[in-house]
Structures are given as structure tokens and as C-alpha cells.
Amino acid sequence: MLTGKQKRFLRSEANQLKPIFQVGKDGVNENMIQQIKEALEKRELMKVNVLQNSLEDKDTVAEQLAEGTNAEVAQVIGNIIVLYKESQENKQIRLP
């Protein structure tokens, strides 16, 4: 689990990032979870955009993505979810 201080740090790091994935009306599926897992291994920190036509609630989507990828939800703001997962091979982010 992330502490409040770590979440604040990750939110500031994610500030300049653009969302890489979009969750639409089909919701979260296995293929998407696999792709996000791979992207998190490379980047550690990323944004996911929940589109207006998504049938799932953004908090539900955040929960499903975090569970499926074993990542932490650093923030849900508007329709954007910020995910963090420590990389095994490409460690770039040093948490406070």
C-alpha cells in the first residue's frame, strides 16, 4: 500500500503524462489488462482515460485495473485513473 506522501509524489510525477489507454463501452477485458501490465512494467506510472460512453463507473474501472495488474491506484480525478506499479527490471521512480 502507498502512503499519502507517496501518492502525492506520484500524482505530481503523473501530472505531465498523457493517458495511454482508454476504457470505452466494452469496459475492462483480459487483453486490456495484459497490455496495461506490460506498459506498467516499462513505465511504472501511467494514466488511463475512462471514456464518456463507458458503462462502468470510473471507480469500478480503477478497482478492476488495479486488481488485474496488481498495481496501486495513485489517483482518480475526473475520468482519469493514475496507476503505479514498481517495475522489476526498469525501475525509474524512487518513492519518498
UniProtKB/TrEMBL annotation:
It comes from the Bacteria. Residues 1-96 form the CRM domain. The keyword Mitochondrion does not apply. The keyword RNA-binding applies. Keywords: RNA-binding. InterPro entries: RNA-binding_CRM, RNA-binding_domain, RNA-binding_YhbY, YhbY-like_sf. SMART domains: CRS1_YhbY. This is RNA-binding protein. It comes from Virgibacillus natechei. The lineage of its organism: Bacteria, Bacillati, Bacillota, Bacilli, Bacillales.
